[in-house]
C-alpha cells in the first residue's frame, strides 16, 4: 500500500481506459443511430422516439436478450475481436424477427478482466456494424472491469434489443397450417451455438487454431470465427412480401434445427424435414468426423447449415424462394407441414423443447454426400 492509500486503479480498475474505449467506438455507434435516437453516447440510458409509430393500431413490443457463449474463447485465443459483435447481434435481433417484429434498438454489456481500449472498441465496432446490417440502433451499453473474477485478457458479451410489431401481424404457431412449406435460409457456418462441443472436439484432436484445413480452404480459427449471418432485414422483407405468405420463422440456435422448429408449430401438426435437401457444410462434417460425434448429438447441438427457417403457405413457396434469391440469401425447400398421424411413434419425433407444448418435427432420409 502506498502512503496515499489504496486506489481503485491499484485494485485493478482503470476508469480512464474505459473513457478511452468510448472515444474509440463512438463514431461506429453513431452510424447506427437515426433521428429517432435522442441524446449522445455516454448517457445513463438511451432514448428512442416512438412517435413515428403512432400510426400503429395495436403496437406490441418484443424484447430479447442473449450472449455469444464460448465462441468468445476463440476470439480471445486468436486476439481478433471485431467480428464477435455480429454473433451477439444475430443471436438477439433474429429472435425478435421470428415474431415478425422489427428490431428498433439494442444495448450491449461487456465484462472483462482488464479494459484494453482498443479491444473493447473492436468488439463494439463489430456490434455497431451488425446493427447497421439489421437496421437497428445501438443506443447504449456498458463495459465493466472485473479484476480477480476474469483474467486480464478474458471477456464476455451480452445484449438486449426491443422491437415492434402490429398485433395482427405477429407471426407464429397460430398461422401455421397443414400443407405449409418449410424454406431453409442458409447459415454462414457454426454461428455461435455448440462451441463447447466444437472446442472439445478440437482439443481432443490436438488441432491448433492456425492449422490450415484443406476442406475448409482456410485456417481452422478463421472458420470458427466466421460471423453469424444476421437475417433481420431479409426476414422482414420476406414477411412484407404478401406473395410469400409467411406464417412463421424459427431461428436455429441452441438445440439445433428440429428442436427450434418445433417451437413454432401448433399442437397436432408435424413438420417433416428432408435431410437430403441440402449438403451439410464442411465445418460440420469436420466436427463429426474429428470427434466421432453421433448424428443425433450433432443435430441436437449445431445448425448444420440452416440458420433460419421460414414456414410459408404452399402457394407462397416459389415467391419466397425468389424473394430470398433477390436478397442474396441462399435458400431451398426443406420440407413441409402436415397433420400428425396418431400412429406415428414418439421415437421418430422431436417435440416439447424449451418448455413449449406444441407441434413436432421429424427428420427423414440421409444427408446428401
From TrEMBL:
> What GO terms fall under cellular component here?
cytosol
Q: What is its main location?
A: cytoplasm
List, for all copies, the residue spans of the domain called PurM-like C-terminal. Answer: 177-338
Q: Name one GO biological process term.
A: adenine biosynthetic process
Compartment(s) where it occurs, according to its Swiss-Prot or TrEMBL record: Cytoplasm
Any one Gene Ontology MF annotation carried by this entry is: ATP binding
- Give a yes or no for keyword Aminoacyl-tRNA synthetase in this entry: no
Q: In which pathway does it act?
A: Purine metabolism; IMP biosynthesis via de novo pathway; 5-amino-1-(5-phospho-D-ribosyl)imidazole from N(2)-formyl-N(1)-(5-phospho-D-ribosyl)glycinamide: step 2/2
Q: Which UniProt keywords apply?
A: ATP-binding, Cytoplasm, Ligase, Nucleotide-binding, Purine biosynthesis
EC supergroup of this enzyme: ligase
Enzyme Commission number, as recorded: 6.3.3.1
Which residue range or ranges hold the PurM-like N-terminal domain?
61-165
What this protein catalyses is: 2-formamido-N(1)-(5-O-phospho-beta-D-ribosyl)acetamidine + ATP = 5-amino-1-(5-phospho-beta-D-ribosyl)imidazole + ADP + phosphate + H(+)
User: What InterPro entries has UniProt attached to this entry?
Assistant: PurM-like_C_dom (IPR010918), PurM-like_C_sf (IPR036676), PurM-like_N (IPR016188), PurM-like_N_sf (IPR036921), PurM_cligase (IPR004733)
Q: Name one Pfam family in it.
A: AIRS
The source's superkingdom equals: Bacteria
Is Transmembrane helix among this UniProt entry's keywords? no
Family per record: Belongs to the AIR synthase family.
Recorded protein name is Phosphoribosylformylglycinamidine cyclo-ligase
Amino acid at each position: 500500500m502506498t502512503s496515499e492509500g489504496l486506489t481503485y486503479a491499484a485494485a485493478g480498475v482503470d476508469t480512464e481506459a474505459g473513457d478511452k474505449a468510448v472515444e474509440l467506438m463512438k463514431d461506429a455507434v453513431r452510424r447506427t443511430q437515426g433521428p429517432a435516437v435522442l441524446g449522445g453516447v455516454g448517457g445513463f440510458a438511451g432514448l428512442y422516439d416512438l412517435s413515428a409509430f403512432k400510426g400503429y393500431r395495436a403496437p406490441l413490443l418484443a424484447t430479447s436478450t442473449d450472449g455469444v457463449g464460448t465462441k468468445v474463447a476463440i476470439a480471445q485465443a486468436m486476439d481478433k475481436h471485431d467480428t464477435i459483435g455480429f454473433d451477439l447481434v444475430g443471436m438477439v435481433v433474429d429472435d425478435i424477427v421470428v415474431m415478425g417484429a422489427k428490431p428498433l434498438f439494442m444495448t450491449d454489456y461487456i465484462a472483462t478482466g482488464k479494459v484494453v481500449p482498443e479491444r473493447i472498441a473492436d468488439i463494439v465496432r463489430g456490434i455497431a456494424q451488425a446493427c447497421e446490417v439489421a437496421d437497428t440502433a445501438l443506443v447504449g451499453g456498458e463495459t465493466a472491469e472485473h479484476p480477480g473474477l476474469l483474467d486480464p485478457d478474458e471477456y464476455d458479451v451480452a445484449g438486449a434489443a426491443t422491437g415492434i410489431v402490429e398485433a395482427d401481424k405477429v407471426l407464429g404457431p397460430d398461422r401455421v397450417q397443414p400443407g405449409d412449406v418449410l424454406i431453409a435460409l442458409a447459415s454462414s457456418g457454426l454461428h455461435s451455438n455448440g462451441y463447447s462441443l466444437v472446442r472439445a472436439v478440437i482439443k481432443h484432436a490436438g488441432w491448433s487454431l492456425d492449422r490450415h484445413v484443406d476442406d475448409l480452404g482456410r485456417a481452422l480459427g478463421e472458420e470458427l470465427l466466421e460471423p453469424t449471418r444476421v437475417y433481420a432485414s431479409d426476414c422482414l422483407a420476406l414477411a412484407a412480401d404478401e406473395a410469400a405468405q409467411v406464417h412463421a420463422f424459427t431461428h436455429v440456435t441452441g438445440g439445433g434445427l428440429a428442436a427450434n422448429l418445433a417451437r413454432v408449430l401448433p399442437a397436432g401438426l408435424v413438420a417433416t424435414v428432408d435431410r437430403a435437401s441440402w449438403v451439410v457444410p464442411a465445418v460440420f462434417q469436420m466436427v463429426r468426423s474429428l470427434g466421432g460425434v453421433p448424428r443425433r448429438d450433432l443435430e441436437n447441438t449445431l445448425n448444420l447449415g440452416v440458420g433460419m427457417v421460414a414456414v410459408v403457405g404452399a402457394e407462397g413457396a416459389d415467391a419466397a424462394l425468389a424473394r430470398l434469391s433477390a436478397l442474396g440469401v441462399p435458400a431451398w425447400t426443406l420440407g413441409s407441414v402436415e397433420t400428425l398421424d396418431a400412429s406415428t411413434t414418439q421415437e421418430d419425433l422431436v417435440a416439447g423443447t424449451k418448455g413449449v407444448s406444441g407441434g413436432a418435427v421429424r427428420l427423414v432420409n440421409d444427408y446428401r454426400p
